[in-house]
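Thread: "does anyone have the structure for this chain?"

Original post by V.I.:
We have the sequence but no experimental structure in hand. Need at least a predicted one for the grant figures.
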Amino acid sequence: MMAASPRSARVLALGGLLASVAGAPAIAGPTEDHRVRGWTIATQLCSQCHVIGRAAQPGEFVGPAFVRVAEMPSTTGPALAVFLQSHHEQMPSLRLDRDEMEAVIDYILSLKTERTAPAGANQED
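Reply from O.Q.:
Generated one for you, tokens below.
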């Protein structure tokens, strides 16, 4: 197994710090690591047009807040995967590899509240 470079270690540390400040899940294991990676990717690629975390952010955004997307009854892992792979006129085409896309999806689904998550549903789907 390769050792992490100093740069990637700094990025992970910064991501964990920012995630804790921005309301993303704390790093506690593989699932949380994946969600933090999703938050990091979303922050880098989506934050100019969308509010990414739960906290209010200053500015005007053309896309819906990720919390609003998560709260939609139609928001599921497969639905988000189809959406992210489709072209949308007002959204740039993203070239995410499978793991990046799954990390972003896991992060968005982690924003669902218990009142909007279907009973007994696994948000990892």
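V.I.: this helps a lot. Residues 11-27, 119-125 have pLDDT under 50 and may be disordered.
O.Q.: and The radius of gyration is 15 Å.
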